[in-house]
Write a structure and sequence with these properties.
alpha/beta, Rossmann fold, 7-stranded mixed beta sheet, 7 strands, Small_GTP-bd, transport, prenylation, P-loop_NTPase
């Protein structure tokens, strides 16, 4: 039987960098030019199957980027196994904001959290303000994963989530029932969805 794991993933970044579009492309392979701003946070799920047939299920919390929702963010990144911090390659200030989020994660999130810095909107290359060299240098200095994407064309989207799945600790945790907190997902190490309960049924995954 192939192994199955479940992880909580949170998206952070300034408003309008394309977080929701990135998730929509990853989950439904769709793009909408006129998406409204996220209010609070949105919840979606998607699975990634690795080469060895291990299945990684992401519980994805797509947070709002507006400043008035910033105080809610710890609810969503608390106990997250991984985070994608998104900036817009055509807007230099969005990288500065991403760095602020990364510092906050480094201070307050789980110390083992996997963080990926993601430069979105590569389809707008003529308007690029953030070079690949600048972003990758910062990511290397901070020990982060890094990649660029275009939610509009789909370029790089599945690759960055697959890379995160490969980076996560795919080992079975001690048997326990996943708990649903304020942001509805599990923390710590991945939940092994193949673990059987005493009745022979899969443990609830709190999807």
């Amino acid at each position: 039987m192939s192994k199955q794991f479940q992880f909580k993933l949170v998206l952070l970044g300034e408003s309008a960098v394309g977080k929701s579009s990135l998730v929509l492309r990853f989950v439904k392979d769709q793009f909408d030019d006129y998406r409204e701003s996220t209010i609070g946070a949105a919840f979606l799920t998607q699975t990634v199957t690795l080469e060895d047939q291990t299945t990684v299920k992401f519980e994805i919390w797509d947070t709002a980027g507006q400043e008035r929702y910033k105080s809610l963010a710890p609810m969503y990144y608390r106990n997250a196994n991984c985070a994608v911090v998104v900036y817009d390659v055509t807007q230099s200030p969005s990288l500065d904001k991403a760095k602020t989020w990364i510092r906050e994660l480094q201070r307050q999130a789980d110390p083992n959290i996997v963080i990926a810095l993601c430069g979105n909107k590569t389809d707008l290359s003529a308007r690029r303000q953030v070079t690949q060299e600048e972003a990758q240098k910062y990511a290397d200095e901070e020990g982060l994963m890094w990649g660029e994407t275009s939610a509009k064309t789909g370029e790089g989207v599945s690759e960055i989530f697959t890379a995160i799945a490969k980076k996560l600790p795919l080992t079975a945790p001690p048997p326990r029932t996943a708990t649903r907190g304020a942001a509805g997902a599990t923390g710590g190490r991945g939940v092994d969805l193949n673990k059987q309960s005493a009745t022979g049924q899969n443990e609830p995954c709190n999807c």
